[in-house]
Amino acid sequence: MGIKFGTDGWRAIISQDFTFENVRIASQAVADHFVGAAHCAAPTFIIGYDWRFLSEKYAELAVEVLAGNGIKVLLSDKAVPTPLVSFAIKNKKLSGGLMITASHNPPYYNGLKIKAPYGGSADEGITKSVESLLAKNPVRSMEFKKGIDSGAIELVDLKKDYMKFVKAYIDFKPMRNAKINALVDCMHGVGDGYIPEILKGTKIKITQIRTGRDTLFGGINPEPIPKNLEATFQAMKDKKSNYDICIVNDGDADRIGAVTPGGKFMGAGQIMALLLLHFIEDRLWKGGVVKTVSNTTLIDLIAKKYGLKLYETPVGFKYICRLMLDEDILIGGEESGGIGVKGYMPERDGMLLGVLLVEMMAHRKKGILEIIKDVEKEYGSFRYQRIDMDYPDDKKKKLMELLKTNPLKQVCGKNVKETKSFDGYKFIMDDNSWLILRLSGTEPILRIYAEASGEKIAKSYLDFGKNLALSL
User: Fold this and answer.
1) SS3 at position 63
2) Whole-prediction pTM value?
3) Rounded CA separation 124/417 (Å)
4) Structural domains of the chain ordered from first start
5) Is the pLDDT of residue 178 over 90?
6) Are 432 and 414 in contact (CB under 8 A)?
């Protein structure tokens, strides 16, 4: 069937594995799991969808299957960012939800994210159960016609309650008269229009680029990483525009990246570190900190300075989500752009995070470059880089076995002081720089990550890892 749930849902190539029939089979397995769960005797589900190719049709198929299994279904009345689906589950105390999206994956992908009753990504207990139920029972469905209220299916507006919450979460006082000129790169995703609406009534000027639905996303992957942001870099280098910061959201707007004046990329690790400082120093909040193994060491140093408990997890927001449910967590995030914050829900929201960055600038009355300079003066500089490379299946096991049986002792002439192997292999050098090699959980690729005090050193680590992988 080609249905397998990775770090955050099932994603596959449209018409190859992501087909109408497979969406129906996956939806039936979801229904079998939740109808069978003791806490879901009369389940109510929310279903949302993004702007990807055929997303609205896939959503209708899922609606028909869930409704055919006796589940009350609330269907978003329009394409929406993933955070709105997650928020609705928590806000309305629903049994769970489905989001039709492939997030940041290439345009020819679509996907299905399962959201649990707590609003966050479904954990392995749920996804493994759903996988075990695939094709175990025949698909049951009922016809859905928009505009006809069947009693089992209801069209709902998810935006109103979300906007009300976000506007209450944000500290508008320092932003009322802050003269900040912000650019927002929507990457042709469903986050289009949200940040300007959130900040309406302030003096902050918002300009959006790459707006509107484009199922090909302008020919790039809607992922906020440097290789997809050439147009954004050029806009930020334009001195006539005089932008103070650019916020970048991915295709379903749950991830964030940013670009500083002059066209320099800010990764999610750097953004998370800044927001951690904002919460501690400006909002005076406390709590633990969660980071994935591939996130920046800067977070460790900040947590150590302020005596905050630090947790490190494998890549995948579902691991962060679990800790946010079980512990008092101030902020938790992964290097790929997903960050969750205290007082919200155990889930990512790239739009809210972007507004929080602007809030930090307004609160400190400083530009983003000055804030970064202050942080580097105290904690040092950390330069992060990553590459993704197609990697044949026959080499994957060989590489992982090699790293297990013969772990690296040196990387580019630097001694390895520690090796972590709970998600791929991370080699940490004496100066706390590091290199990671890990296989993607959602795509047939090898990811190589590195962080060092300078970009050239980080790049040399990536080349080292790439050459090692290709040598097999």
Assistant:
1) helix
2) 0.92
3) 32
4) 10-161 (3.40.120.10), 176-263 (3.40.120.10), 383-470 (3.30.310.50)
5) yes
6) no
